[in-house]
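Sample entry was shown:

___
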Amino acid sequence: MKSFRLLLILGLVAGLFYHCTQNRALVYETNFDFDIEADLTNLNRYDWLPLPVTAKIDTLNAKRFKAAVDSHLKTQGLIETSQQPDFLIETRIGSLKKMDTTGGPQSYGIYVEAQPQLFFLNPDSRQVLWWGQTRVRVNPGLAPEQKDALIAEAVAAILQNFPPPADR
């Protein structure tokens, strides 16, 4: 019985620390898909389409997101150019305010769940060649450096499946 009480107390303490942690941010539910008939091996140059006016992101975070994508693609040897790109990048970003009630009825918090999406399009037909998305939990009060790190983590999660495996 004493060991059960000890486990219960340790569990409650761990739960308390977990729920009281400030600036807890999560990247989860990453998905992707691609056109299995498209040749994605020769995609070397890309350009960006303008961010839709319906995107739920401020200009600073949009700039962070683009910089993180550019940096990630550069490490893969891809080049941003407006001259004859092999694919275009379209960005969609949605967000919802959510309430975290996992701390109990007396303990809750508001956070934003963002859903950044990247679509790589054929520049001529505008058909989707590849797309990826993830969900990001963003807690209020993040410093600019924390936002940079969170966006970079989200972009890395989205692009971990680009290019898709060769043995598709």
Notes: The longest helix spans residues 2-20. The chain has one domain: 23-159. Residues 23-159 form a domain with the Double Stranded RNA Binding Domain fold (CATH 3.30.160.670). The radius of gyration is 20 Å.
